[in-house]
């Protein structure tokens, strides 16, 4: 399952989630899908920042519209208008991994 939008490329293959960003000095983020946690934070200038990290409990939602807690292993800034596209992808990943998605 692949998602490409702008400078972001995300994919899941054999239960492993990978995030790649073009023109970014920090390397890719790679983790078992069951460990992935994504938090969205609205920023100024119509930008949303997505924070990627690990869940503390395996039944936590994969995606939430709240500030990140715990270590942040990667982040991506996207236009706020694109956030629904990303949320739809994370919803598909939640269904794939039998995990909830926060409202």
Short description:
With 103 residues, this protein is mostly beta strands. It is 14% helix and 43% strand.
Q: What are the low-pLDDT stretches, counting only 5+ consecutive residues below 50?
A: none
Question: What sequence of helices (H) and strands (E) makes up the elements?
Answer: EEEEEEEEH
Strand coverage percent: 35-45%
Helix segment tally: 1
As laid out across the biggest beta sheet, the strand order is 1-2-3-4
What's the mean pLDDT score? 88
Morphology call: globular
- Helix percent reads 10-25%
Largest sheet data: 4 strands, antiparallel
The count of strands amounts to: 8
Rounded to the nearest angstrom, the distance between the terminal CA atoms is 23 Å
Give the helix/strand class: mainly beta
Radius of gyration: 12 Å
Keywords:
mainly beta; 8 strands; four-stranded antiparallel beta sheet; single chain; four-stranded mixed beta sheet; 103 residues; 1 helix
């Amino acid at each position: 399952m692949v998602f490409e939008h702008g400078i972001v490329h995300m994919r899941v293959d054999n239960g492993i989630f990978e995030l790649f960003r073009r023109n970014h000095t920090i390397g890719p983020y790679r983790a078992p899908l069951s460990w992935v946690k994504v938090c969205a934070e609205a920023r100024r200038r119509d930008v949303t920042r997505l924070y990627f990290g690990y869940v503390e409990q395996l039944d936590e939602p994969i995606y939430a519209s709240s500030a990140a807690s715990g270590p942040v292993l990667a982040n991506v800034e996207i236009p706020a208008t694109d956030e629904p596209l990303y949320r739809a992808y994370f919803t598909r990943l939640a269904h794939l991994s039998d995990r909830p998605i926060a409202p």
